[in-house]
User: Fold this.
Amino acid sequence: MATIREESDYDSSRSSLTAPGSRRSWISDIGSSSSVSVRSFGGGWDAPAASCRHKPHKANQAEWEAIRRVRAATGHIGLEHFRLVRRLGSGDLGNVYLCQLREPWSTGCLYAMKVVDKDALAFRKKLRRAEVEREILRTLDHPFLPTLYADFEASHYACLVMEFCPGGDLHVARQRQPGRRFSISSARFYVAETVLALEYLHMMGVVYRDLKPENVLVRGDGHIMLSDFDLSLKCDVVPRLLRHNSLPHNASAAAGRADTAKPSCVPPIQPVLSCLFKGVHKCHAKEEAARKKPGDGEADSADGASSEPADTNPELVVEPVSARSKSFVGTHEYLAPEVISGQGHGSAVDWWTLGVFMYEMIYGRTPFKGESNEKTLANIIKQPLAFPRVEAASGREWDEHLRAQDLMSQLLAKNPKKRLGGSTGSAEVKRHDFFRGVNWALVRSVRPPEVPKPPPAVPPLPAQKKVLMMSRKERREPYNPVRSDERFEYF
Ligand SMILES: Nc1ncnc2c1ncn2[C@@H]1O[C@H](COP(=O)(O)OP(=O)(O)OP(=O)(O)O)[C@@H](O)[C@H]1O
Assistant:
């Protein structure tokens, strides 16, 4: 899937790259510069990496421990400490390799190393993108986002050492499903984890902007990890207290539903997929009856008007809902209308892409795809949302489809102000009935729909291994770290 990249957010010069019909991400230059709240990262590649060493979520991992031991023994970590095993994939910025530390005691630990050629990127005026990605990765510490173990340079290459995901991506995983579609319960699992990852990113002031199944990787334990942050927007988050009567209609209604929910609705703590997602909660029945029919793309949601609560319970919003960028960034089929129209966009674009993502996972195609990229963009702006006919095996499955369609309708509201999540952020998305029964705090402990097979064992290193060191003469030559004892084509 083509991704669109426009460099103006980070004061880099503009470039455009389109791949009609493909699903690659791209940026083009039709936007003007971003208006408010875009924060530029300081320092470039030489900036210190102190923050990437503190990752409480992964502190006890063997992978961290191994990196720490190398750092303690040698005072630094660099390319010479790693052995590249094979290429995992390549993207617009560089190649990603499976690798392991050379120290024999650490051979069980596998990492993914993204290698970007800084000279080539500087020539293509994309260096800033790579820097942004590295800065974002350094700050992340969340179960569904990549852990950056180390970043360093080797000659004109910049290397990011991250958690390795052996399960591939959700685009490939979907092709393996019956009918190339995920079941509703599997889709709910992946969408719920994605919501939590987006929520964290937003709270860190990051608008992701490139959600698509190709960028959602599956970790060894079957849980997800969002990848590829070179299109993300970093902005300042200014916490705001939102009063309910100042919310747009649908947000207000969603907030009202939450406020009136009784504590008895809280599901029991059962960190198993089937239990978590069972959702037999009678207290939702009334809301269900009141809920509007799915299929209306704008989801103006007039319901809830009568139940609008008194202004006694204001909501704290700590997500960049009012950030504004005018960059033309994303992947054609996933672009939000406000990105296409260039009117300025903020974190609401991620809730739009969540709607497209969910649609593709459940129906096997995106909702506005046309015969050409131009037609796709026109459809996104004008075409009302429609759902394919589904054949449900039971009444319960039918109800689940209706709930899914209602959520997609609200996420795919063309007006970002009326979009679920567009005003108060993730809280209103998480309250939607589709997630009924999801215990958000324990999603990371839920049993995933599929757990990937462990990756094949990496063959041991050749006996007469030497630490990769470059002579002065070698340093002057074009960089090529291929060692004669390892028949492997690097970078
Ligand atoms: N942590 C990882 N574990 C396993 N595979 C990975 C990992 N990170 C990336 N990959 C693989 O490498 C490919 C390229 O990675 P990535 O998308 O980050 O590169 P990119 O240059 O930023 O690409 P893009 O053109 O989409 O911006 C991915 O499609 C994926 O298959």
Notes: Residues 184-203 form the longest helix (20 residues).
